[in-house]
# Entry
Amino acid sequence: MHTAPAKIILFGEHAVVYGQPAIAVPFTALNATADSTPAPHGSGLTIYAPDIQRTIVVTKNKVEDVGDVLAYAAQRALVSLDVPMPDLTLTVRSTIPLASGLGSGAAICTALIRELTAAIGRPLEGDALNALVFETEKIFHGTPSGIDNTVIVMGKPVYFVRGTPPETFHIQSALTFVIADSGIAAPTRESVGDVRKLYEANPALYQTYFDHIGAIARTARTQIERGDVPGIGRLMNENHDLLGTLTVSSPRIDDLVAAARGAGALGAKVSGGGRGGNMIALAEPSRAESVLTAVKAAGAVRGWITTLAAN
Ligand code: PMV
# Structure
């Protein structure tokens, strides 16, 4: 069996598509898994995804159909390794809510490609795996920055700038986050597309927003490295306001953010593509349970407390 974690973006989503830095970390309480069993000779590759009640027969060792992302991921992997279609059944599962800013698409494709390539004796990891998952992200996102596939494949905190090698960084003090699912699925492709339209209508203005978000992400890295926990919280609030200006928050997310802050969170923001999806809040460990209770009372359908360890 192979797995891949969910992820949360701490700073810089959306602006990262335009070349600004962003910070993302794995969220291991949720993950995608893939298992394989040999299939009878000549039966080819079948992908079974019980969570979405899909059985996909991957009939051709060719990249033709971009309509089905799981089949596309498998096809791309086989073509890149230049191997014939294996006789295999792959079963993929995920506990990560779909279209909710937690990287479900990248995680499921990462687990699938890991299992498939290991099963045929040509395991892919690192840059080669990351490049393949990035191709599948284009289907989910349209114009992905590459941050989701990078943090999920690396399984480590990343400071990411599009087109440059990802960096890991020092975390001086452990950080406790409360994550709250608004229960509203919102495809990243749409929010990214809408931000693109706003940018194209007024590039000079939107560039100032992106620059401001980039400056926040850079400062946040320094504060994480120094362990200035209240300062990190303030930057999350500032980042959230700018994401609201980009129109990627939503009334439900704003309610969750207000509830988290009201319960003593040091900072809170939408995370990922937005419009729905998940909110993240930074809290002192002793306050995390109260923040979780408050966001659930404010309408979160699910919530988690997670700690990013010092390193
Ligand atoms: O919604 P998610 O988890 O897929 O995150 C998207 C992050 C964006 O910055 C909005 C898009 C991107 O490709 O970086």
Q: What stands out?
A: The radius of gyration is 20 Å. The pocket of PMV is lined by residues 9, 13-14, 16-17, 101-103, 141, 144-145, 147-148, 188, 192, 272-273 (CB under 6 Å).
